[in-house]
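Entry:
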Amino acid sequence: MKVDGMVDGGFADVGARAQELEALGYDGAFTSETQHDPFLPLAIASTTTSTIEVGTSIAVAFARTPMMTAAIANDLQIASQGRFVLGLGSQIKPHIERRFSMPWSRPAARMREYVLALRAIWTAWHEESKLNFRGDFYTHTLMTPFFSPGPSEYGAPKVWLAAVGKRMTEVAGEVADGMIVHAFTTEKYLREVTIPSIDRGLATAGRSRDSFELGGPMLVVTGSTEEQMAESAQATKQQIAFYGSTPSYRPVLALHGWGDVGDELNAMSKRGRWVEMGELITDEILDAFAVVAEPEDVAGKVRARFGLLLDRISWYGSPGVSSEATRAVVAELQE
């Protein structure tokens, strides 16, 4: 199992954080699209490391045209000497329309076409062929030599898709190189919904599971003292409540019989009761979504729960857990 970490934060810290992850034995260093652009920090991480994979987890696809994304991903693939992974997510309708002022419709179908458009653009560059992509959402038919970066010895980057619902998960299996599981997931949901959906997508494309990587961030409650464990549990319950308030994530709760909790969380979020929402997350719900363990037991519990399901996980370390303990967890997970 591979282990990934995050390099979110200001530019002054990106290089040092990426180097730290590489020194701790992590396999990947990823950014997210939250308070900062997901791509710019990776230009630094790419040139301050030498072995670790670098990538986005995730960049919002529908906030950009395929041509814009193809260009910056190609540049980062070259800068990292072939170590870049383009992780894409759809976000949700209010953010696409009201935050990014971009069109939203049929997200799974649009994402499928988005990835195919990326591949068409990269093929035109690397094989110096005519660009002629025509779809329902995107059309790319103009590429003159002046605007083409031309072939690269590193080729096109890998593309991973973030998905929760069945249809988007099927799309990932059909057109992507891997899938980023949302942190708001459970072992039961992975077994009964996610993996069967991936398999349907792979079958549609005539691909094998060996060609596909499955991984993502896992929620871990840990700490070196009882106080740290309690703080970690409370923070994780708040995070679960935040995710659970999103209607599109309700099926994960519903699979466990907690759909009414999702409805109540959504209603509370609309009233701005963010702190109180965490009180709805019981210890039973916490145990389903998070691995709860002392630092020395984290790796064993993660492997027991996800070792046969995931190819890689993202664990960012925890406050109060030393670098030495983090290194030990990473090494044990990779065994």
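The two ends are 7 Å apart (CA to CA).
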